[in-house]
């Protein structure tokens, strides 16, 4: 007796309604259910399960992603050995206290350090642990059907109703056709039609997380298999993509020399144009390197032009144009007039107007006036546009008034000791300068075609009439760049879908009332509060109402028998609650 009373009590009915509403809103998301955290008491296996649940939770995944972002900050601010070992050494020399600490923390090689790799791997595992169960749950939702309508549709956030003389079966068939036309997944469930829409939201969420994994894999493969080298080429020079041809080269830990894409190219011509007037005078307008390249050992030679931000692409390799400068043609003769050096000497720019400097090194073949073997070192300072007077800087980057300043030295360059040295620097430890007629250091400003005589009949240096240009190329191979780009785009679209698409459900119930008039009820429920669900429900209700107009309410004395069907509708709670 007491049990029957409890079941029929108001609190029991309310609990049943709450269960029905909970079932109606179930599985609107594939997010894992939050469970209370409790310390396992099952020994090692229990701890492993607990750790796995924590690692694959969304909170931990976001925390690891934040740690990875924070870990990349020192990799951007502190010099890295994989990028520029010279800057790392300069940092060590300037910071005697910080350098040992940075070494212990691995801050000079952040991306290959133990702590960064640990965070990276944990994030990778966490994302996989999050995605796999949510994917299976989402597939199960796609294979299933939307849940049936709750008993009390008027308890849902969006609700409307009206009475009509149409048959309930006709209303349900019309509602089913309408919802399917609006791309709802709909089916008849008892006296109602259940429909659901917005699965792309969960799909976008999964795509976003999968894209993050793709980005992580692409980043890792790019770091391990990448290569990056530079090459300075004077007009007329050639290059073959082999390790000895590079001026500077660095690669990933798993890169092999055989991974270099086989190709070669010749620099035929380089042209640069500049603004000649106005406030932007001297600003570069175009940089173009005309080359002829061939793919493979016996590929057909093809002409092309490389521009800034328009690299040459050959399989996984990209050839970028990154710098340029001038290379005056220098001819050096010994005391007997024999040519001991003739070449275009690349000089490095110092400013935006391509004021350049470098060194001419004559290491073999030169003999002085006494017939003794010596080496020559000539410091060169080049101005493409000399302004006259005491000007020491070029006034314009183009070759309008070129002047070459030379400072010759003789003796030993120090290259025979086997110690490597820069081709752009002169070690004067074992060198002596030449003296002019006044006993001062010999200096000369030469224009194209002019010659500087060395004192005592020691020879001459001629600035040729031709000034060639050189171009600096960067050859990059990043196998994972395409995957990284695809992953980034997929992540953007997936995130947009998960943010702007709402998952929602609609139910349409049509039953015949005691007076023989059909009562139509429509209700909608979304994953989150939004004005879109009531608006969409109102639009659906208006379309369905046109097919099943309202009937006159006999309890309404103001209703007229001649009233139109549209004016005879009696909504229960309006189009929106």
TrEMBL record:
It is found in: Membrane. It comes from the Bacteria. The keyword Phosphoprotein does not apply. Residues 1-37, 544-577 are annotated as: Disordered. Residues 1-11, 558-567 have a biased composition (Polar residues). One of its GO terms (biological process) is cytochrome complex assembly. This is Cytochrome c biogenesis protein ResB. It comes from Streptomyces pluripotens.
């Amino acid at each position: 007796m007491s049990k029957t009373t409890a079941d029929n009590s108001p609190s029991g009915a309310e609990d049943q309604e709450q269960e029905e509403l909970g079932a109606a809103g179930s599985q609107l998301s594939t997010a894992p259910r939050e469970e209370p955290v409790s310390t396992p008491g099952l020994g090692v296996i229990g701890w492993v399960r607990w750790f796995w649940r924590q690692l694959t939770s969304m909170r931990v995944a976001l925390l690891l992603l934040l740690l990875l972002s924070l870990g990349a900050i020192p990799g951007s601010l502190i010099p890295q050995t994989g990028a520029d070992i010279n800057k790392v050494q300069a940092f060590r020399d300037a910071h005697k206290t910080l350098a040992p600490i940075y070494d212990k923390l691995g801050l000079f090689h952040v991306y290959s350090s133990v702590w960064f790799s640990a965070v990276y791997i944990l994030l990778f595992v966490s994302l996989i642990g999050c995605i796999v169960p949510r994917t299976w749950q989402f597939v199960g939702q796609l294979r299933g059907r939307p849940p049936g309508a709750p008993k009390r549709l008027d308890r849902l956030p969006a609700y409307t109703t009206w009475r009509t003389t149409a048959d309930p079966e006709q209303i349900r068939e019309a509602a089913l056709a309408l919802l399917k036309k609006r791309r709802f997944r709909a089916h008849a469930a008892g006296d109602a039609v259940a429909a659901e829409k917005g699965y792309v939201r969960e799909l976008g969420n999964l795509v976003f997380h999968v894209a993050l994994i793709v980005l992580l894999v692409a980043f890792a493969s790019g770091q391990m298999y990448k290569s990056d080298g530079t090459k300075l080429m004077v007009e007329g020079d050639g290059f073959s993509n082999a390790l000895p041809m590079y001026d500077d080269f660095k690669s990933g830990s798993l890169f092999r020399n055989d991974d270099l894409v086989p190709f070669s190219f010749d620099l035929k011509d380089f042209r640069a144009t500049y603004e000649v007037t106005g406030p932007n005078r001297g600003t570069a307008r175009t940089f173009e390197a005309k080359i002829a390249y061939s793919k493979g050992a016996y590929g057909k030679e093809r002409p092309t032009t490389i521009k800034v931000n328009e690299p040459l692409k050959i399989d996984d390799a990209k050839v970028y144009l990154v710098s340029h400068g001038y290379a005056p043609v220098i001819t050096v003769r010994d005391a007997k007039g024999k040519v001991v050096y003739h070449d275009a000497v690349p000089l490095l720019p110092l400013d935006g107007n391509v004021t350049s400097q470098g060194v001419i090194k004559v290491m073999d073949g030169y003999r002085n006036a006494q017939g003794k073997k010596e080496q020559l070192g000539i410091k060169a300072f080049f101005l493409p546009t000399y302004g006259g007077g005491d000007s020491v800087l070029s006034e314009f980057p183009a070759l309008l008034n070129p002047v070459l300043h030379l400072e010759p030295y003789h003796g030993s360059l120090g290259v025979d000791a086997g110690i490597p040295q820069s081709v752009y620097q002169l070690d004067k430890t074992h060198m002596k300068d030449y003296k002019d007629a006044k006993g001062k250091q010999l200096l000369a400003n030469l224009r194209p075609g002019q010659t500087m005589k060395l004192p005592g009949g020691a020879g001459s240096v001629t600035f040729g009439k031709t000034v060639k240009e050189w171009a600096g190329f960067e050859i990059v191979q990043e196998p994972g760049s395409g995957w990284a780009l695809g992953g980034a785009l997929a992540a953007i679209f997936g995130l947009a879908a998960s943010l702007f698409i709402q998952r929602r459900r609609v139910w349409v119930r049509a039953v015949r009332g005691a007076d023989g008039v059909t009562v139509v009820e429509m209700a909608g429920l979304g994953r989150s509060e939004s004005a879109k669900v009531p608006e969409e429900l109102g639009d659906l209700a208006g379309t369905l109402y046109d097919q099943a107009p309202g009937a006159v309410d006999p309890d309404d004395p103001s209703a007229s028998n001649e009233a139109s069907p549209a004016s005879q509708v009696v909504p229960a709670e309006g189009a929106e609650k």
